[in-house]
Fold this sequence. Notes:
It is built from seven helices and seven strands; from the N terminus they run αβαβαβαβαβαββα.
Amino acid sequence: xxxxxCCFNTSSSLNSCSKKPLVFLGSPQVSTTVLDALFNASTAPxxxxxxxxxxPVAQYALDKGFSSDLIFTPEKAGEDMFLSNLKxxxxxxxxxxxxxxxxxxxxxNIPPLGTVNIHPSLxxxxxxxxxVQRALQNGIKETGVSLAFTVRAxxxxxxxxxxxxxxPDLLEFLFSKG
Length: 178
């Protein structure tokens, strides 16, 4: 689903998408699944930039050979120094997965293609934190993963695509579908 989105609104075909700079944001271990998919995708940019507090994602990026000067760890995504560094990277797109923070407007205005979030539920159902856990607690038989534009309110942006899966598939599987 993410590979299709990366090629969305370009004049290129799916097989010949031009590489664009993007930024990845994630915190817990499950986010590394998405970063790994981006790293291995044929449409992945030459460099991925990741911003989190020190986390498994930061370590994963280092292990994959990302330069430490491309791994930002601000306390908040609205910090002036971070926003200045982000602007200097000129990302076309930012991607979040299990990031858990509402991004400030100053951040959201930087990438021309916007910021998209990979969310493990069929939005608008189970928006916010712990969507898989809440779905399983409610005994639903079908859930999924959504790709949606990020706006100032949590998980309320326009949904770009979604993919349904039968419960009780787990969080890692849903993020791998992104």
